[in-house]
Design a protein that fits this description.
- It is an enzyme of class 1 (oxidoreductase).
- It is a single chain.
- This protein is of the alpha/beta class.
- It folds into two domains: about 140 residues, Rossmann fold, CATH 3.40.50.720; about 280 residues, Dihydrodipicolinate Reductase, domain 2 (2-Layer Sandwich).
- The protein is about 35% helix and about 20% strand.
- The chain contains 15 helices and 15 strands.
- The protein has a nine-stranded mixed β-sheet, with helices on both faces.
- Helix 1 crosses helix 2.
- The two termini are about 25 Å apart.
């Protein structure tokens, strides 16, 4: 199967913070890969903007290095790289001052799509929006892309939305969450709404529970100061995992249309019941004995009194007709046993078993959507074990790895940023968060955080390389369920 590449019209994209980590690690390589695929025309312009004093050739050299480090060898074609670099330009800009804005304005071409990627700290979003508008650089058709975090609570999210809204309409604002650009996340919607097979079963009558796991083997690394101010709840649950939950739980939209999809996601967030503190487990990873490089969380964030969590597990209930009584279990953490992200929908047992009750080999049907690594889907069903000797049941997977199912093309699934940046150029907001979604998510999250902060709760320690704190296991065991094993 060969994927279709649909070229976009010529455009100008300005990357603020172009010399920073996100730009060199994700944004510039993603743009090059789309150019290599033939989706970006040679007439496109990629303009770097940052406080760093560089000229165009210096930024092209930085871009060439970014491609060498973050693009696979199969796509590092010298001629293509040189052709891509001809699209690249640079202007030094002071986000909080007056330097560089007129020079930037001179580079923006009239009559083509123009987008402005805010790959900077959220504290600079307002400054950039104000200066882009004030210097007359943007038009009513311009688009801005803003990275998370979208505030750190409801009040700051509202303030940020108000700041952006003072200069741009909602249809111009693209709040990017790279999880929504993953091929498997988009396939979740296709599996649900393009196949009659699952949708009739996608409710509390047939689904026992849902597990969403995002596990990482790394610690907080160089993000220690940021992470200690945020914790896993703000960094992962309020945005990434909330979006995954919405896509699983949402009602079918009337059309695959940006606002129609986001309307249904918003309904899910507003239907979330307040989470009881007894349904929440928080943890911090311990150091690895004998390995000075793998320090504990409090050492990594250089705060021995830290009360921020590197791990969180919680049980969530949705108060609506489709999901009443079906729990959703979410967990995410650093320094866990394996790097994996998956959604597991566990179906209920048949109402009556015709087989030998003594046969304890029966297992539930489980649909597993793997986001990373090895993106794909896996449906576990019961069959008869081959051979004589009676009706012995065994669970087997109906497995679809994208790399295997789609052949060579599937082995090279586009990075999430590639898809999302192209959606910005096309003007498609389906996979981006709307302002009211962000605020609704914070409105649900804030009371949870306020509860443990008011009590001064400390996260529980857990061993690096484990599955998390022991109490997280009990969160499931008391309901007669078990977490899925964390493994690649």
């Amino acid at each position: 199967m060969v994927s279709r590449v649909i070229p976009v019209d010529p455009f100008d994209v300005v990357v603020f913070g172009a010399t920073g980590d996100l730009s060199t690690r994700k944004i510039l390589p993603a743009l090059y890969r789309r150019f290599f695929a033939g989706q970006i025309p040679p007439e496109a312009r990629i303009i770097g903007a940052a406080r760093t004093e560089l000229d165009a050739e210096g930024f092209r050299a930085l871009t060439r290095t970014a491609i060498a480090e973050h693009v696979g060898a199969a796509k590092r074609d010298p001629e293509q790289i040189e052709a891509f670099l001809q699209c690249v330009d640079y202007v030094p800009v002071d986000a909080t001052g007056t330097t560089g804005w007129q020079e930037l304005k001179a580079l923006i071409r009239p009559g083509v799509v123009n987008a402005f990627y805010f790959s900077v700290a959220p504290s600079l979003f307002g400054d950039l929006a104000e200066r882009l508008h004030g210097h007359g650089i943007t038009t009513d058709d311009s688009r801005i892309v803003v990275e998370k975090p979208f505030g750190r609570d409801l009040a700051s999210a509202r303030a940020l939305n108000a700041t952006l809204a003072a200069h741009f309409d909602e249809h111009q604002i693209y709040r990017i969450d790279h999880y929504l650009g993953k091929e498997t996340v988009q396939n979740l919607m296709a599996v649900r709404f393009a196949n009659i097979l699952f949708e009739p079963l996608w409710n509390s009558q047939y689904v026992d529970h849902v597990q969403i796991t995002v596990a990482e083997t790394v610690g907080v690394g160089g993000r220690g100061s940021y992470y200690d101010r945020s914790g896993a709840m703000r960094d992962m649950v309020q945005n990434h995992m909330m979006q995954l939950l919405c896509l699983i739980a949402m009602e079918p939209p009337y059309h695959f249309d940006p606002d129609a999809v986001r309307d249904e996601k918003l309904k899910v967030i507003r239907a979330l019941q307040p989470a009881a503190q007894s349904d929440i487990v928080r943890g911090q990873y311990l150091p690895v004995k004998g390995d000075p490089a793998r320090r504990g969380y409090v050492e990594d964030v250089e705060n021995p009194d830290s009360r921020s969590e590197s791990y969180i597990a919680l049980k969530v209930q949705i108060a609506n007709w489709r999901w009443q009584g079906t729990p959703f279990y979410l967990r995410t953490g650093k320094r866990l046993r394996a790097r994996t992200s998956e959604i597991a929908i566990t179906f209920k047992q048949p109402p009556h078993s015709i087989f030998d009750e003594a046969d304890d080999s029966w297992r539930e049907n489980v649909l597993v959507i793997r986001l990373q690594p090895n993106e794909g889907m896996n449906l576990k069903v019961m069959i008869k074990e081959p051979g004589p000797g009676g009706m012995r049941l065994v669970q087997v997977p109906l497995d679809m790895s994208f790399a295997e199912a789609l052949g060579e093309e599937g082995a090279d699934i586009p990075d999430a940023y590639e898809r999302l940046i192209m959606d910005v150029i096309r003007g498609n907001q389906t996979l981006f968060m709307r302002g009211d979604e962000v605020e609704a998510a914070w409105a649900w999250t804030d009371p949870i955080i306020a509860g443990w902060e008011a009590r001064g709760d400390r996260p529980q320690p857990y061993d690096s390389g484990s599955s998390g704190p022991e109490d997280a296991l009990m969160l499931m065991h008391r309901d007669g369920r078990r977490w899925r094993e964390i493994r690649e």
